[in-house]
Amino acid sequence: MSNLPKIAWIGLGIMGSPMAENLIKAGYAVTGYTLEQDKLERLAGNGGTAATSIAEAVADADVVITMVPASPQVEAIAYGPDGILENARRGALLIDMSSITPQTSIDLARAAGEKGIRVLDAPVSGGEAGAIEAVLSIMVGGEQADFDAARPILEALGKTIVLCGPHGSGQTVKAANQLIVAVNIQACAEAVVFLEKSGVDLTAALDVLNGGLAGSTVLTRKKDNFKNRDFAPGFRIDLHHKDMGIVTDAARTVGAALPVGSVVAQLVASLRTQGDGGLDHSALLRGVERLSGYPTTEG
User: Fold this and answer.
1) Catalytic residue flag (residue 174)
2) Which percentage of the chain shows pLDDT scores above 90?
3) Residue 97 pLDDT > 90, yes or no?
4) For residues 137 and 126, is the Cβ–Cβ distance under 8 A?
5) Dihedral (CA of 290, 294, 297, 299) sign
6) Whole-number Å distance between alpha carbons of 267 and 237
7) Angle at 298 between CA 266 and CA 17, to 5 degrees
8) Which of 91, 113, 90 is nearest to 166 (CA)?
9) Contact 20, 97 (CB under 8 A)
10) Short-list 221, 217, 214, 211, CA closest to 190
11) Closest Cα to residue 38, out of 17, 23, 58, 59?
């Protein structure tokens, strides 16, 4: 029998499924729950255990990890008679890896503490590829002792793992991350259209740009999406729209101006309005194409 902590994983989406599988590969016993039956079958097929409810998944877990889309989903799985806080054992560690508002994380930590459950907010950056390759950047908020206890688990999921401060700090840093990523993608998209309309070899141009100061992880990860117009979702526009709402609201609260970020937030929102919410966030290129007079294409 393994001496490793038993893990419950709630939320097996584009990110959650490969992350849970990486924990299984690292030797952890993982019991998962999600709403999609095919995702439960995938987990079981990769050596995990499928649960029929949140209560069943968390009952014997030492560590509960959640990865769901937004604050309402975190609240739905955490609270209430069928939720995590009512069914996890006292002393368990809850690691919420969703991207939500900092205040939601602070409130969750307070409510969980009343049940004797420890909490870390630990959102990630790196997208589907980073989840599959276990090279995610993980920004954590919470107590040092809980972070130290969680580190071996987080090391099976990511490469850069940093405690950023008290509860909610991980979410604040993630909001800043999403601001930078969205602005970077938008700049890359504008450059792609500019280069193409100028008649430059796009592949050559992006390769040389990525080798200089204009280079970035965003360009490395997304340049093939741009070149091939492949917008299969690694991180959906819908989710980035949610994240841009988080960062603009949080910035307003603390009095920080986001002049460029606010414009990009509106461009992301525009894509959703035009029906592109289910596409990868590299589909910001489609918005630039429309503004630049490209023929309309299907997603």
Assistant:
1) yes
2) 96
3) yes
4) yes
5) negative
6) 10
7) 75
8) 113
9) no
10) 214
11) 17
Residue from 242, 238, 237 nearest 282 by CA: 237
End-to-end CA distance of the chain: give it in Å, rounded: 49
Q: 237-254 vs 259-273: helix axis angle to the nearest 10?
A: 150
What distances in angstroms separate CA 64 from CA 128, 198, 261, one per listed residue?
21, 52, 34
- Residue 17 amino acid letter: S
User: Side chain identity at 118, as an amino acid letter?
Assistant: R
What SS3 state is found at 156? coil
Separation CA 185–CA 282 (nearest Å) = 6
* DSSP run (H or E) holding 43: helix 37-45
Query: Cβ(155)–Cβ(149) under 8 Å?
Result: no
pLDDT value at 298 more than 60: no
Angle at 279 (CA atoms; ends 223, 291), nearest 5 degrees: 75
Residue 53 has pLDDT above 70, yes or no: yes
Separation between Cα atoms, residue 96 and residue 107, nearest integer Å: 12
Taking all residues of the chain, what is their mean pLDDT, rounded to a whole number? 96
Provide the residue type at 256 as one letter. Answer: A
Which is catalytic among the residues 6, 115, 174, 223? 174
Q: How many residues does the chain have?
A: 299
Q: How does pLDDT run across 102-159, given as a tens digit for each residue?
A: 999 999 999 999 999 999 999 999 989 999 999 999 999 999 999 999 999 999 999 9
pTM greater than 0.85 (yes/no): yes
**How far is it, in rounded angstroms, from Cα 30 to Cα 65?**
10
Going by pLDDT thresholds of 50, 70 and 90, the confidence category of residue 297 is low
Predicted confidence at residue 234, as pLDDT, reads 86
Sign of the CA dihedral with 283 first, then 285, 287, and 289 last? negative
CB 101 within 8 A of CB 159: no
